[in-house]
Amino acid sequence: MSIPQERRVVTAIPGPKSQELLARKQAAVPPGIGTTLPVFVTRAGGGVVQDADGNSLIDFGSGIAVTNVGNAAPRVVERVQKQVADFTHTCFMVTPYESYVQVCEKLNELTPGDHEKRTFLVNSGAEAVENAVKIARHATGRQGVVVFDHGYHGRTLLTMTLTAKNMPYKQGFGPFAPEVYRVPLAYPFRWPTGPENCAEEAAEQAIDLIAKQIGAQNVAAVVIEPIAGEGGFIVPARGFLPRIAEFCRANGIVFVADEVQTGFARTGTLFACEDEGVVPDIITTAKGIAGGLPLAAVTGRAEIMDRVHVGGLGGTYGGNPLACEAALGVLETIEAEDLVARARRIGEIMLPRLEALKERFDVVGDVRGRGAMIAIELVEPGTKEPNPTAVQEVVKRCHAEGLLVLTAGTYGNVLRFLPPLVIPEHLLEEGLGILEKAIAEL
Predict the structure, then answer these.
(1) Chain-centre distance of CA 336, in angstroms?
(2) Which of 194, 264, 258 is nearest to 229 (CA)?
(3) 3-state DSSP assignment of residue 216
(4) For residue 285, what are the contacts with CB-CB under 8 A and spacing of at least 6?
(5) Per-residue confidence at 2, pLDDT binned at 50, 70, 90?
(6) Of 77, 349, 370, 388, whose CB count within 10 A is highest?
(7) Model confidence over 33-81: pLDDT tens digits?
(8) Strand partners, 301
(9) What is the Cα–Cα distance from 183 to 186, expressed in whole angstroms?
(10) Global pTM?
């Protein structure tokens, strides 16, 4: 499917057809399912999404880092079309199929570290993280789980507990799961003594809290996003992740890297923890793994993964054959089109222009990210006070001009950018121009 790679705004956004569909949505779907931009999509590909009114919007969201290889990537489409004609489901736990094994073999090969690994497949990032905790607890005989400020790990009971932000993810949904403890994250922009002290001081604080308040001998797993996603695309100060991983190794704690949002070339390496040479004991992946089909994975050291008894892991739909074929198509596309390098190129284009915005406008407090996972944090000019009102105004202006952007951040004051890795550069530049205009007009 070929879609013209151009921005085209022919109606107000959302247009009349999308507004009609929105009214139907509101009558049929609970309001708890929010919508960032209520345009109803009919086609998508490359760097654009088209809506029911014929508008074509530049996509800086990728369905929250899912369509890294684009919507309807040819290798994905071809594999899924063939598979859907053969069979859609048998349940791998009943009668298995080769594509599931192939995906596991590829993840064992491609994830960080040359140790022997095992992988199994589930449906979502939250399910992957929850299973990583289950496995760590089983393997260590311990119960405690340590997570970090600004972290996001999902919406199930356990992963909601692991998540730091209360509203909207946790408010009113308690009581929460026990034996979960939170420690500081190395957040350079907001570290009290400055970014130059952030890594060392944050690591010392985290380790001290674990040792004194929990006891390292009681901790089964430390779970961390190598770049905090929903928390605001916070890139931990350099040196922080290796220090935490080293502490885990020294104390028999399973180090779990939640790469649900950062994986599959998004940050300019295949996985974000590769940037500092961190080798996790378990890595969880989802989102970009299957080009939009529901799939997630848990990959870990064989000696940890093999501890769980037969039947202790699984799920009816985990590793669905259509999703497995899609994942194989995604991995082929990343390699064939060198999307790791493409992500770095996107960063090379975006970061200087955003840094220039920071120089021009005091409302831009911080620019951060790696590869094609980039954010700006908006503040009250002359301070570090979060400015969520400015973010909402910028989003409103961008959407009206046909640029789809997302927000994030513990304080609701971060604009995050996740363009498809296959976006043409002219659309990337055009989108940045719209963003610049929106900020200039604040």
Answers:
(1) 23
(2) 258
(3) helix
(4) 107, 111, 125, 128, 259, 260, 263, 264, 271, 296, 297, 299
(5) confident
(6) 370
(7) 999 999 999 999 999 999 999 999 999 999 999 999 999 999 999 999 9
(8) 117
(9) 10
(10) 0.97
